[in-house]
Amino acid sequence: MQRACLSKHDKLLNAAEFNRVFDKSVRSSDQYFTILASPNDLEHPRLGMAISKRRVKLAVVRNRIKRIIRESFRLSQQNDSADYVVMAGKLGARGTNQQLRESLEKHWGLLKKKCAKS
RNA sequence: GGAGUUGGCCAGGCAAUCGCGCCAGACAGUCUUGGAUUGUCUGGGGAGGAAAGUCCGGGCUCCAUAGGACAGAGUGCCAGGUAACGCCUGGGGGGCGUGAGCCUACGGCUAGUGCCACAGAAAAUAUACCGCCUGCCGAUUCGUCGACAGGUAAGGGUGAAAUGGUGCGGUAAGAGCGCACCGCGUGUCUGGUAACAGGCACGGCAGGGUAAACCCCACUCGGAGCAAGACCAAAUAGGGGAACAUAAUGCGUGGUCCGCGCUGUUCCCGGGUAGGUUGCUUGAGGUAUGCGGCGACGUAUGACCCAGAUGAAUGAUUGCCCCGGCUCUUUUUGAGCUACGACAGAACCCGGCUUAUCGGCCAACUCCCACU
What we know:
It is a single chain. With 118 residues, the protein is of the alpha+beta class. It has a single domain (15-117), classed as 2-Layer Sandwich (Ribosomal Protein S5, domain 2). 40% of the residues lie in helices and 19% in strands. It has helices at residues 15-23, 59-75, 97-117; strands at 26-29, 33-39, 46-50, 82-88. It has a 4-stranded mixed beta sheet with strand order 1-2-4-3, with helices on both faces. Helix 2 links the parallel strand 3 and strand 4. Helix 2 packs across helix 3. Mean pLDDT is 74; it is low at 1-6. The chain binds one RNA strand of 372 nucleotides through residues 3-5, 7, 11-18, 48-51, 58-64, 66-68, 70-71, 74-75, 85, 95-97, 101.
């Protein structure tokens, strides 16, 4: 069984790692999320989240969105090696749990194909 | 039964599946021992009443500091509680409510300065618009009228506010001019720790409001904050020391050479950024019982350990029940449908305040109606 966000191995930890993804990436976005992806040298994928206070005002809602992202990331079972950064979109705070989950599923699929091409 | 006041409590519940970070233990792997680290399993615990705003007060940490004064900021009836407070408790004054109760920035403008629109004669070193009254002169239709000199502030009018209020006496008309009661001030006595309350005597009245206006008085206050502070410590640049090379080249000191310094290589040292570790959760801790106190609270004893994340754990899905909403049904009953189920997420820790908030429960008390 594959684990979810494995402690620090599966997360982007500092500004340097985030910037690497921002500089060179493939992106996919809709009204709920914008996801950046960039291949890495490791054997497993890594996840970073950038949910700004400006986009999502309430701390409770920010936490809810993060949990859904982690949950979805875990269940999508990606065996490829790439770093992902998820950012909140315009309607990120408004979407229901189900809407957000469906949106993420779609993005994972799209990004896998894009990464494979490049 | 209805309406209301105050205080306290809860913050949907249960089950299944998947999942997260923390702690303890066991086993296994890796590294040189201590130990560190990774994985698996078992067990334990994992958001709030406001975790929020960051408005006060402390603890803790670092920096500064002989002592004092000024400046600045804050507080402002009295007493108590507390580590401390701008908080809390009890009491007093004032205001609101039929009442239970609620509100209260509640020291001083009989120190100084400033401000007070409009209206009004006058808004403060005052003095008088219409009036009222007396004297005298003139006119007269004998009712009064006008001018001048004076006495007044009772009445009118303005205003939020006009040099105490009401009544009686008094007077030419009036006036604390005199008296009674009320208000105010001073003195004194009684009760109270005190704020204050009450009594008695005296004074005829100090002289509008405003101090969240400057200000005066009394009291309090050093600064910065866990991104505090402590430790470990890449890369890059630079500093100090030692050894070697001065073989080759160059520069400075020199007329020239040696030497010395710059320079090259290696090693060591200290400071220190990214990053990491720590601070980091046992504490002015809650809790039960007894005792003291009207109470805030204090105290003794017993058992208890109750989140510690760091690009930031505490979640998701499904089912049932509860609650809410909508529809059907004649109302009740019943049936069906429905959903981010109030406000909202710890970030060093406490004590408060303020703000947000679906709904529900408990206790005490008040008013109204009905019944006995």
